[in-house]
Amino acid sequence: MSEIALETWGEHEALLLKPPRSPLSIPPPTPRTAVLFPRREGFYTELGGYLPEVRLRFETYGRLNARRENAVLVFHALTGSAHLAGTYDEKTFKALSPLEKAFGKEGWWDALVGPGRILDPALYYVVSANHLGSCYGSTGPLSIDPRTGKPYGRAFPSITIRDLARAQARLLDHLGVERATVIGGSLGGMVALEFALMYPERVKKLVVLAAPARHGPWAQAFNHLARQAILQDPGYWAGEAAPKGMALARGIAMMSYRAPEGFAARWNEAPEEGPSYLDYQGEKFLRRFHAESYLVLSRAMDTHDVGRGRGGMEAALKRLKEIPSLFVGIDTDLLYPPWEVREAARLAGARYREIKSPHGHDAFLIETDQVEEILDAFLP
């Protein structure tokens, strides 16, 4: 277990006192945007919606080797971005959108990407893209609908986890990647699962961290409460990009991302700091995310069920037995309890490892030393 030193940026809400395995870091990255589904083709969503064009914002680290088999595709969580690693220089940072600037200069999994780290760009071609529907440069509710010349807003179509996976598969086409190791945590783990089931021939290895095979009633209840906090705020209906209800939504979500043990370890002597922490996280969230993207992506999470249309969960997960797979649970995860992840691993014939941490669901972002140790035994 590592001790939290500081609350900080973006999706990665905590810095640790323990430094990364290597003190070396990657050069400042440059985000790029690619049109993956142009207007002559468009993108039809699983639920029957239509987007005239789809772009994804992405970053890459390292180079694709001559055999084109060293790619690692990393999927971010609900409110993450393409900015996986490194620190933006001033020129790049100034050119970012206001929300990207609010996310911060530092990558959300920086401790794992860099020279001498588990995802070493000298060995791997690491790719990270902002999900379809998000607000950090990919096509989402903030994007301009070419049919109207105005942002999609609430007219953005409903999407599913499978839609997110399909968009990311097209990104690999764009980059000339035929096969990749796919890694994801939380919502990103759901996308990794769907990617492996939809494109098994393109998956070299699969890593699923803190994610279930189906978004069950407990997890959907948390999402429901968070959405209601937004939808019951008059500011949302008045068109505010960051209605105050979104701060409450974030507080509700944070209660599912953390655990009682972690709160007690930090604030047992000053319990009033627990509520203050949630208020702080909520206010910070208002500056860095958009309500419509939150609604779109949280609803997409609730569609997640690998067994849908595949004969049920067990039949679907059995399809993964030909892919070397690793599922990682967290002993204090309230959102996706370890038994849920362990059962998915069993049905998939996969390895199972568990992070030990008082920090709950977010431990896959916080306990980077444990994550690195677990991946180190699986990736080579």
From TrEMBL:
Leading EC class: transferase
Q: Which part of the chain is the AB hydrolase-1 domain?
A: 71-365
| A GO molecular function held by the record | homoserine O-acetyltransferase activity
Q: Where is the active site?
A: 186, 333, 361
Localization, per the record, is: Cytoplasm
Naming one, the record's GO cellular component terms include: cytoplasm
Q: What biological processes does GO assign it?
A: homoserine metabolic process; methionine biosynthetic process
**Pathway, per Swiss-Prot/TrEMBL?**
Amino-acid biosynthesis; L-methionine biosynthesis via de novo pathway; O-acetyl-L-homoserine from L-homoserine: step 1/1
| Primary role | Transfers an acetyl group from acetyl-CoA to L-homoserine, forming acetyl-L-homoserine.
Known partners and oligomeric status: Homodimer.
The entry sums up its family as follows: Belongs to the AB hydrolase superfamily. MetX family.
Under NCBIfam families, the record lists: homoserO_Ac_trn, PRK00175.1
UniProt-recorded name of the protein: Homoserine O-acetyltransferase
Species whose genome carries this gene = Thermus oshimai JL-2
